[in-house]
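Sequence in, structure out.
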Amino acid sequence: HRRMRVLLTGGCGFIGSHQATVLLEAGHDVTIVDDLSNSRVSVLDRVTKITGRRPEFEQLDVRCADALTDVMARHHCEAIIHFAGLKHVAESVERPVDYLDVNIAGMTALLRAAKRTGIRRLIFSSSGSVYGDGSAGAIAEDTERRPTNPYSRSKAVCEDILATLCDVDSSWSVVALRYFNPAGAHPSGLIGEDPTHLISNIVPVIMEVAQGRRPAVPVHGTDFDTPDGTAVRDYVHVVDVATAHLAALDLTSSRSGFLALNIGRGEGVSVRQLITAAERALSTTIPVLESGRRPGDVASLIADTTLSRELLGAIPYADVERIFRDAWRFHSTGTE
């Protein structure tokens, strides 16, 4: 692939920092913009340590089109990978206006800046949650989207904005990657899931319990219509997610228009199965605390990965135990 100058929004976050690593290792130049509202600037040192190359960094709010335009022009960016946004389902139910504003106004500001600077390639960080409750087995990309909360609705709206843009302007090439449950950490143990607030994803919660920093893993809902009553999700290693973006970036060179692709392993794992896998991988017992369902949670979300495997190539997706071993390496070495 051709070396590109890539603008990475939200590049100090969990997936973004792994994306920066994968891009730099593939020979691309990376400019990160991040407002550091839920991430740490120290991650740049870790990315540099892993790759031997330092990404450029600009601290700004993705809703500021003028600041984005300036950064894109100064760094001669040619493509955008857009991660910046708010991402917690339960919080989105409490703060719907914030979620709609940051996620949707952030997208339109980014597109305004891209138009001014001539960028026409964009990879969007979407979510498998746009499908809503996918209890009827694996979900393909042509399934009707039925988002159940403000977070997933904001992702669906952003997809619609991008599709509309591609409909009227054939110079755009956009890939929306709907990922299911990214988890794990870089195998070096240097970067991983390290939010500055709101640890709600289950894998880092399991890590805190394994370290004795929390008494038990909360299991939200044991009465879902699933084989063991707990919610079923498709967990995918964060490095595999970043690798998929790299392949999608190559794809924008050969096609135009809007394309949505699922990113997952295509296998469902229940919360109980996940905890069992963690116990195996970490050789420890993980206590749990059962409670009721959370607002906006759905029973099952599993990706049908047929199309993404066809278009992005054969990414050797890591299994759940590997996800836990890598996450443990990161969490047990201490982050700060």
